[in-house]
Amino acid sequence: MDNVLYGFMAAFQITNLIAALLSVGVGIVVGSLPGLSAAMGVALLIPITFGMPAETALIALAGVYCGAMYGGSISAILLHTPGTSSAAATAIDGYPMTLKGEAGKALATATIASFTGGMVSSVALYTISPILATLALKFGPAEYFWLSIFGLTIIAGVSSKSMLKGLISGALGLVLSTIGMDPMLGVPRFIFGSNALLRGLPFTATLIGLFSMSQVLLLAEKHLRKGVQAKEVKDKVHIDKDELKRITPVSLWSAAIGTVVGILPGAGGTIASFIGYNESKRFVKDKSLHGTGIIEGVAGPEAANNAVTGGSLIPTLTLGIPGNSVTAILLGGLVIQGLRPGPDLFTIHGQTTYTFFAGFVVVNIFMLMLGLFAVRYFAKVSKVQDSILIPIIFTLSVIGSYAISNNFTDVYVMFIFGIIGYFVKKLNLNSAAIVLALILGPIGETGLRRTLIMNKGNYLALFNSTISWVLISIAVLSLLTPAIMAIFNKRKGKIENGD
Amino acid sequence: MRRLDLILSLVLLAVVGVFYYLTFQLQQNAMIYPLFVITLLFILTLIQLFTAYFRKTDEESKAFKDIKWKQLGFVLITSGIYVVLINILGYISSTFIYVLVVLIGLKTSRKLSVLVSIGFVVVMYFLFKEALNVPLPKGFLI
């Protein structure tokens, strides 16, 4: 409890408040620009936050994450082009509202629903994380090995277009994670004659390449978006008491669902927002109104996708298994700050963690304020041309990858991984699985080799505990999920056809 | 997509080959784990190769359809030159040149291009150098 109170006091320190406010603003801009993702924003911010105290850095990263998740709705509502894929469901009812001249009302609804989503998920963050973290106390090296295998299979199996390609991405990441010094023997491996690679692939540069520079190339290959004329926000950004009453139950219900979806690794904002949209139909008597521009249709997906933010932080912070690319990068940011996911975060580093949690709440409050009072200005930013974004993102990628260790080799690594990242996206491989393997690889390797050394090379020691078997079972289950879902859908189809 | 999947498998096999070759140059104790993960990638790539090769139905891939190759090539090459140029001229001056060249190359109006390049460089200088204290790469200019 002391830590919780300390967290709130620390989060209200001026530096943390400024970090929260600025990062939410940056996040909203990134989210509202179609083509830029939350992952890109967070990746570029890591080097900037590197020199900050850990809690300030984490608050800033969460600010971009939450802001971007919400910002996607602005272009979904005004341009019918979701700024992020998680906002695709918001466009279904949001854009018709704009056409009816109710853009302000739609934006206010999205803001309030996103805020509700964020707050509900922060309750889960406070209550579920410490419990889950104590589970990690029971983990030995063998369990850590299986945990890393589980983390990889779930992200590869659930969030990839093709499971095989997801697994290939994970395996490729594991191979790349062996570059650098052998953790047990201290001999160099695969350093290609470069001393700079002795410490392994520079993590930040690799992910800036995979997520930010690749985005530059993806923008450059298409017909460039010239300052699109977004619809003007003619009405007030406001909803009245009755409308607030209408969206409150939808928002709370969708937020609860979004939080659960967020906790499950592999699912994420897009899935949550479509479930949230479907769930919003429960709260409207006349189902035919959906799609014509009603506030419930905006509140459902927005509450759900912002609830994913807090939910997805839970497995990331407690077990070190992030469920999506943003939390995978955030986990990297955590490791760079010298923090390791698990029980230590709630005991030794309790003050830092609870300051971060309180900061997460503050971030959501700033998001509400910016959304209600400054959304008109953010709407103008979503008009920025692609031709301006291209050089700016690339120069930021260069300075971002250089800043961590002031080493130019990192910039070359970023450049190479930018090109790799482009092909990864084009060929339906999974960049999140690669990044996750880079983080989990060394944990799994150390776990495996420690277990073997402690048991004189006996491989059976890996299967000694119940926790190991639970992790193995859910890893296998996650690999079977697509097959199970296919059978389930087939049956459902048969039932619906009356067979 | 089939053809692309085949090419992907071959590229991955080449990566596996290089890492296999380097693994066998490591001392024996250090070899086991890398060998394990490389073999994992090798097996998965083989499955991918065979499934792609024997796939009968093939949906047309949209991945490389309607790509503006000239524009993409222009951005990639200028970005490559920019990275090299930073070491010679320094971050600020090469960034100014790079942003300006790319903007004009991508047919942005001249006035806007100049304004954006100057504005961006000024912001970068004060943000990184003054506010965040990040040393910027130096050359014979700034």
Describe the structure.
- The complex is a heterodimer of chains A (499) and B (142).
- Chain A has one domain.
- Helix content of chain A is 72%, strand content 1%.
- Chain A has 18 helices and two strands.
- With 142 residues, chain B is an all-alpha fold.
- Chain B has two domains: 2-53; 69-131, no CATH class.
- The longest helix of chain B has 26 residues, at 28-53.
- At the A-B interface, helix 8, helix 9, helix 15, helix 16 and helix 17 of A face helix 1, helix 2, helix 3, helix 4 and helix 5 of B.
Write a brief structural summary.
The complex is a heterodimer of chains A (499) and B (142). Chain A is mainly α.
Biggest β-sheet of chain A, characterized?
Answer: 2 strands, antiparallel
Radius of gyration of chain A: 22 Å
Oligomer: heterodimer
Shape summary of chain B? flat
Q: What is the helix fraction of residues of chain A, given as a range?
A: over 70%
**Main sheet: strand order of chain A:** 1-2
Number of domains of chain A: 1
Mean pLDDT of chain A: 88
The proportion of residues forming helix of chain B, as a percent range, comes to: over 70%
Residues in β-strands, percent of chain B: under 5%
Order of helices and strands of chain A: HHHHHHHHEEHHHHHHHHHH
Query: Count of helices of chain B?
Result: 5
Estimate the global geometry of chain A from the Cα principal axes: globular
State the end-to-end distance of chain B: 47 Å
- Biggest interface pair, residues each? A-B, 52 and 59 residues
DSSP helix count of chain A?
Answer: 18
Q: Which stretches of chain B are low in confidence, meaning pLDDT under 50 for 5 or more residues running?
A: none
Overall radius of gyration of chain B: 23 Å
Number of strands of chain A: 2
Unreliable residue stretches of chain A: none
Mean pLDDT level of chain B: 89
Secondary structure: elements and pairs:
The complex is a heterodimer of chains A (499) and B (142).
Chain A: H1 2-11, H2 14-32, H3 38-49, H4 54-79, H5 88-99, H6 103-136, H7 141-159, H8 163-177, E1 180-181, E2 188-189, H9 203-220, H10 241-263, H11 269-280, H12 295-318, H13 325-336, H14 350-381, H15 386-403, H16 408-426, H17 431-454, H18 466-496
Antiparallel strand pairs in A: 1-2
Helix pairs in contact in A: 1-14, 2-3, 2-4, 2-14, 3-4, 3-9, 3-13, 3-15, 4-5, 4-6, 4-12, 4-13, 4-14, 5-6, 5-12, 6-10, 6-12, 6-14, 7-8, 7-17, 7-18, 8-17, 9-15, 9-16, 10-11, 10-12, 11-12, 12-13, 13-17, 15-16
Chain B: H1 2-23, H2 28-53, H3 69-89, H4 91-105, H5 110-131
Helix pairs in contact in B: 1-2, 3-4, 4-5
